[in-house]
Design brief:
The chain is an all-alpha fold. It has seven helices and no strands.
Length: about 140
């Protein structure tokens, strides 16, 4: 069974040992998970969105139209110097709100934390680097 990104993050946060955290990340590897981790921990990823949480209506549990495992490809439109650089700011922010309203509310919280560079509880940069070598392009700690 494929876990949603927030479910993987919760499992990692609950694990006590670094090796267990790394194994959980590796076992549940997905582009969406790696995008969240890179977007959070890598200082070369600069978001072209206002800080804080935008006004949005979280999807209801039984009516979630999509998931982050499918929608993470839209992240490229929200990065400075990315394909969405020439996009009107209002359109970009509207697209972002559409993304977070279409995924699980806990995944939406992760995405908002990512653009604000707020690290998930229980996951360190060292764990990410060991689980996915080469994912983080900057060399800062």
């Amino acid at each position: 069974m494929i876990l949603l990104v927030y479910e993987v993050i919760e499992k990692v946060a609950a694990a006590k040992k670094k090796a267990d955290k790394i194994n959980i990340l590796k076992k549940n590897e997905s582009w969406a998970l790696k995008d969240i981790l890179r977007g959070t921990f890598d200082s070369t990823v600069v978001w072209n969105l206002p800080e804080g949480a935008p006004p949005y209506k979280a999807a209801l549990e039984g009516t979630i139209p999509s998931n982050l495992l499918r929608r993470n490809t839209q992240f490229k439109y929200f990065v400075k110097n990315g394909p969405g650089q020439q996009m009107n700011q209002v359109k970009r922010e509207g697209m972002f709100i559409g993304l977070i309203e279409s995924i699980h509310p806990k995944d939406a919280e992760l995405v908002i934390a990512m653009i604000n560079k707020q690290k998930p509880t229980g996951i360190s940069r060292a764990v990410v680097e060991e689980a996915f070598p080469g994912l983080l392009l900057d060399s800062q700690s």
